[in-house]
Amino acid sequence: MKKTYHGSCHCQAVAFEVDLDLQAGTSKCDCSFCTKNRYWKAFAQAKDVRVLQGQDQLTDYQWGPKHLHLWFCKHCGARPYGTGELEELGGAFYAINLACLDDLAPEEWVAAPVFVMDGRHGEYEREADVRGHL
Q: Number of folded domains in the chain?
């Protein structure tokens, strides 16, 4: 069941709301970006995200296949979400950084199923062999 969460960057320049069903799954990835940033995310369709303020305070970073815009705050450096468009994910989507959800209870976070993508080998649909370090 979807629940509305409120999120922000660290300095509060960026604020958003998102409707997520965390029991539908979250993901981590062992690619170099996600590993270095400890980016634990949940995917949401664009229609389920409302940016309340600060999109103009974000800077875009892309690498590799450049299918994901990895937004970060110009002021504090926090990465509240990424955006992209892939048919496999139902079109336009947001990759919400769970660490930026202000009202996500620790109990909800640890109860959410986690899929660890094998981004290290570019096989994002496959589960990574080693996951404990993430």
A: 1
User: 129 lies in a domain?
Assistant: no
Q: Identify whether 123 is part of a domain.
A: no
Beta bridge partners of 43: 95
Q: What share of the chain is helix, strand, coil (3-state, %, to 5)?
A: 20, 45, 35
DSSP state letters, 22-75:
GGG-EEEE-SHHHHHHT--EEEEEGGGEEEEE-GGGEEEE--TT--EEEEEETT
Joined together, the tokens standing for residue 65 give 């296949």
Question: Would you call 20 helix, strand, or coil by DSSP?
Answer: strand
- Per the structure, the complete domain to which residue 40 belongs is given by 3-115
Q: What is the CATH number of the domain that holds 43?
A: 2.170.150.70
**130 lies in some domain:** no
pLDDT digits (tens, 9 = 90+) for 100-131: 999 999 999 999 998 877 777 777 777 767 66
**Confidence band, pLDDT 50/70/90 cuts, at residue 59:** very high
